[in-house]
Recover the amino acids of this structure.
């Protein structure tokens, strides 16, 4: 029964964009699982497919994008079998998403109470008064002072950090099993980011909600997540518990990313850097996509490396790992 | 002041106020007795700053602290509302002559957004080559060679100069922005969040470029960023701003190891670090107040865990707490005796 215990299981997911210029393999054979109450960090640079993985789970892939292979199961239910009505029941209720820009979630011309009550009553047959009560609780839980007054405000009356809290409150309001957070703190100031990370961590522990935290920032992941998947050009190149992956990275890309973080270098000295630039997904090198930027590339890298398990709980796509 | 010892660039008591004047309807409403007034933002509030030759000064702070406004004042994009700016010990206005033009060009700015700060309709050769030709630094016929030279310096292939900005990635555009600034032979670069929009691996490349150029061209930087990791890496000295005021400054290593001001302390504690695992976040309370209505006394007191009565009424003065270190906090005053 252990195999079915996972909250979310993604297996061999492939999501491609069929454009005039060619097929873009935004997500290319991605597999991972999220347990209840655990936090998974999905790390990668722009174009690595981390956000598209999140959108695929939410069923938010639009043409020309299409999921071409793979299974996504939530609580044992294969999401591919759902029709539109079933999706509507699921989204905002069992799975919720928090976007980088809270104005993607909030309607600028509606008051917060209208938007939040709508989110509750779309899924639960409750009175407006009791829905409002839930909204008040949700706002208080994410640390918004005087929630009664704030409920009557419009989004523009909130600061950036407060808006993101409102978006988080809406995501939490129906006590979802899974939250996908797509860089929700990237646009925020350090002290505000600290507050939000604190709230999210506490909420996951308390409610048993599974969380996927998508970011480009390894240092946020290291403080927040239990497990981490590092993505490059649509593939997970390395995965495992945060401590293992960050302390003993095996993929040259993970290692390069860690080495280029300024605080891990001697001040004033040149930073260790990964050469070259992120490749276009339309013109990926054959085999390992990182091959042309990798100092450890060997002839075998011309064939795409399969995922292997170098140690318990870890996964790696590399034929010539660092350690 | 003795010019030989003067810092390369100095700001003395510089303030910048932005005033939103009432429109016609507002003025009429006020005449009829409505409670309307002009909104004033003290973006920069009595800031003094000196940058020595070949020094890198890091300016950190959160949104709305006035760090970008200060950068724009330094690079002459904005005029200060009060206070005086000095270049090599002489006031900026003494350089307002045609003869002093090279000195005016000596301060250049590098902007945050590598997508918005390049004209999409110009080729790279024009973006980089226009200013030096206009200012007579190069003859028009030598332009191509000159641009090729500068592009080489920032690590770009000269064959790309016929292309347009949209054909480049974020990291390359950053390099183009840097090349444009370097084309007029500056001595001083104001870098406003110059690496904030870049991916980690590209950010490292561009930071390395800044470090290398500093050596090669004997440049001085005012490096503005919200990222304390970046600031720590590149700066010799750090200046911390909060709501328009400088709250602390000093040598980088000392500020990071022994922050004095409670705000600096909180900022440094909040920075996510790769080697801090599964941490329990102990966040600092409250929001950054609106600069339209800053709190009285010390601007930080509503969020400060150590605030006491005096902080609520009296703004602390920035004063020396150790050689080369300044801090604006009442806690540094010797207990009343």
């Amino acid at each position: 029964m252990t195999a079915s215990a996972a909250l979310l299981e993604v297996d061999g997911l492939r999501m491609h964009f069929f454009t005039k210029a060619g097929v873009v393999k935004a997500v290319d054979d991605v597999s991972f699982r999220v347990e209840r109450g655990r936090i998974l960090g999905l790390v990668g640079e722009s174009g690595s497919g981390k956000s598209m993985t999140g959108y695929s789970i939410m069923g938010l892939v639009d043409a020309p994008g299409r999921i071409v292979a793979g299974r996504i199961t939530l609580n044992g239910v294969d999401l591919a079998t759902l029709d539109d009505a079933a999706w509507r029941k699921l989204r905002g209720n069992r799975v919720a998403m928090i976007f980088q820009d809270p104005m993607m979630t909030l309607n600028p011309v509606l008051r917060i109470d209208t938007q939040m009550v709508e989110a509750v009553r779309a899924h639960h047959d409750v009175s407006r008064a009791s829905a409002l009560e839930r909204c008040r609780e949700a706002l208080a839980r994410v640390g918004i002072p005087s929630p009664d007054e704030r409920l009557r405000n419009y989004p523009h009356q909130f600061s950036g950090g407060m808006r993101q809290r409102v978006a988080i409150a809406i995501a939490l309001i129906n006590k979802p099993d899974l939250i996908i957070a797509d860089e929700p703190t990237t646009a925020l100031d350090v002290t505000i980011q600290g507050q939000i990370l604190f709230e999210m961590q506490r909420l996951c522990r308390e409610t048993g909600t599974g969380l996927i935290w998508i970011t480009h920032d390894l240092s946020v992941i290291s403080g927040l997540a239990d497990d981490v998947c590092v993505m490059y050009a649509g593939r997970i190149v390395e995965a495992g518990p945060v401590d293992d992956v960050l302390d003993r990275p095996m993929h040259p890309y993970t290692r390069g990313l860690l080495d280029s973080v300024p605080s891990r270098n001697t001040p004033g000295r040149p930073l260790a850097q990964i050469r070259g630039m992120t490749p276009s997904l339309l013109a990926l090198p054959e085999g390992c996509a990182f091959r042309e930027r990798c100092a450890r590339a060997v002839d075998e890298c011309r064939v795409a490396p399969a995922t292997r398990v170098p140690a318990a709980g870890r996964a790696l796509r590399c034929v010539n790992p660092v350690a | 002041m003795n010019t030989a010892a003067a810092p390369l660039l100095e700001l003395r008591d510089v303030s910048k106020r932005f005033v939103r004047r009432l429109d016609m309807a507002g003025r009429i409403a006020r005449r009829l007795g409505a409670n309307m007034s002009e909104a004033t933002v003290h973006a920069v509030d009595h800031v003094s700053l000196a940058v020595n030759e070949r020094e890198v000064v890091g300016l950190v702070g959160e949104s709305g602290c006035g760090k970008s406004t200060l950068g724009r004042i330094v690079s002459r994009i904005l005029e200060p509302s009060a206070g005086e700016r000095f270049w090599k010990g002489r006031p900026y206005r003494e350089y307002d002559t045609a003869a002093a033009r090279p000195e005016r060009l000596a301060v250049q700015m590098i902007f945050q957004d590598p997508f918005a700060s390049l004209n999409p309709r110009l080729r790279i050769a024009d973006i980089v080559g226009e200013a030096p030709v206009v200012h007579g630094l190069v003859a028009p016929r030598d332009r191509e060679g000159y641009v090729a030279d500068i592009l080489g310096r920032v690590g770009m292939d000269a064959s790309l100069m016929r292309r347009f900005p949209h054909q480049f990635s974020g990291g390359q555009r950053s390099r183009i922005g840097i090349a444009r600034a370097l084309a007029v032979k500056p001595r001083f670069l104001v870098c406003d969040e110059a690496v904030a929009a870049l991916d980690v691996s590209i950010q490292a490349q561009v930071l390395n470029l800044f470090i290398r150029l500093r050596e090669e061209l004997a440049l001085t930087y005012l490096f503005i960023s919200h990222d304390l990791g970046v600031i720590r890496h590149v700066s010799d000295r750090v200046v911390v701003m909060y709501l328009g005021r400088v709250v602390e400054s000093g040598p980088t290593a000392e500020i990071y190891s022994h922050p004095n001001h409670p705000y600096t302390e909180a900022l440094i504690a909040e920075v996510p670090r790769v080697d801090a695992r599964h941490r329990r976040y102990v966040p600092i309370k409250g929001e950054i107040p609106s600069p339209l209505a800053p709190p009285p006394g010390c601007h930080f007191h509503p969020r400060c865990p150590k605030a006491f009565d005096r902080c609520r009424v009296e703004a602390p003065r920035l004063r020396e707490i150790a050689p080369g270190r300044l801090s604006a906090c009442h806690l540094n005053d010797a207990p009343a005796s």
DSSP finds eleven helices and twelve strands in chain B. Chain B touches chain A through 49 residues (CB under 8 Å). The radius of gyration of chain B is 22 Å. The mean pLDDT of chain B is 88.
